[in-house]
Structures are given as C-alpha cells and as structure tokens.
Write a structure and sequence with these properties.
About 35% of the residues lie in helices and about 10% in strands. The chain is built from two helices and two strands. The protein has helices at about 5, 10-30; strands at about 55, 65. Strand 1 (about 55) and strand 2 form a beta hairpin.
C-alpha cells in the first residue's frame, strides 16, 4: 500500500530514539540517587587547614590586605 512506506521507520532512527530515552532514564536515576554519595561523607583536603600567609594588593585602593586579617571569614580568591 502507498501509505505503509511512510509509516515504516528507519532502524537508525528507532535505535537513536531508544538510546536517547535509555540515557535520559539512566541520568534521571543517577541524579535521583545523588550518585550514591553524601557530600558530607566526602573528606575535603582544605577544610580545617591553615592557609599560607598571603598579602594581596587592593584593587582600586591603596595598600594591601592580609589573609590573616580575614581569619574566620568565608573568602573566595579568584585568580
């Protein structure tokens, strides 16, 4: 029949769509289970360790600032 050829799908399209669906489901399961790792259980190499002495020049102002002056504060240094 003339309409039947339009309804048939290429095996590559079926395989590609199936692979995308399986990959999406696998990713969903991995994200839902948080990859099986509790971030609180992972040891950090930097928590509770002293930082090296460092003096940084201030941008747009005179002088410098020492990391020692910021002890106890949360600090992000962007190089």
């Amino acid at each position: 029949m003339p309409g039947d050829s339009d309804r048939r799908r290429s095996p590559w399209i079926v395989a590609t769509v199936s692979a995308v669906i399986v990959a999406s489901l696998a990713l969903g399961v991995a994200l839902a289970t948080r990859f099986g790792v509790d971030p609180n259980d992972v040891a950090s190499a930097v928590i509770d360790r002293k930082v090296a002495a460092l003096d940084l020049r201030r941008l747009g102002a005179d002088g410098s600032i020492s990391l020692h002056e910021l002890e106890g504060e949360i600090l992000v240094v962007n190089f």
